[in-house]
Design a protein that fits this description.
Elements (H helix, E strand, L loop, with lengths): L7 H5 L7 H14 L3 H6 L1 H22 L3 E3 L2 E7 L19 E6 L8 H22 L12
Antiparallel strand pairs: 1-2, 2-3
């Protein structure tokens, strides 16, 4: 004690509940709990996962339905460039790297918007993921410095 100002016991209080540090921390908690984005933030991972699932469905649907891989300028179709039909495909030395050739065809009209939609969903999921980590739950802080 130097006699200048209140003592340490007076500054901190006799109980933890009346400490100024406790009051600052509870004030920070009350302010962060009252924000409207908090409810969205807590469920943002659901929206991110939903965007990823929708993007995967939009990308893989034409592969299964139209038997081609969608690209920006059409549809890539594979053809087997190996032994003739009736031959066991994977009995040759090339069984680990079979000879497939790709050629482009027009994507059926009903699948033209699937690839841009999938790209939009993937970009949205990435943006939401980055936003979730950039916002953080509570950016409030308190610094205690001795006299």
């Amino acid at each position: 004690q130097d006699g200048c100002g209140p003592s340490i016991a007076q500054q901190l209080g006799s109980a933890a509940a009346e400490s100024p540090f406790r009051r600052v921390l509870s004030h920070i908690r009350e302010r962060s709990m009252g924000l409207r984005w908090r409810a969205f933030y807590d469920r943002m991972w659901i929206v991110t996962a939903l965007c990823l699932v929708i993007g995967l469905v939009l990308f893989y649907w034409p592969i299964g339905a139209a038997n081609c891989i969608p690209t920006w300028h059409g549809c890539a179709v594979m053809t087997w460039d190996g032994p003739e039909v009736g031959h066991v495909m994977f009995s040759t030395p090339n069984c680990w790297l079979p000879r497939w050739k790709f050629h482009n065809v027009d994507l059926p009209h009903e699948y033209r918007y699937f690839l841009p939609g999938a790209a939009a969903m993937f970009i949205s999921a990435a943006a939401l993921h980055l936003l979730r980590h950039a916002i953080g739950i509570d950016r409030g802080c308190m610094i205690a410095v001795p006299n």
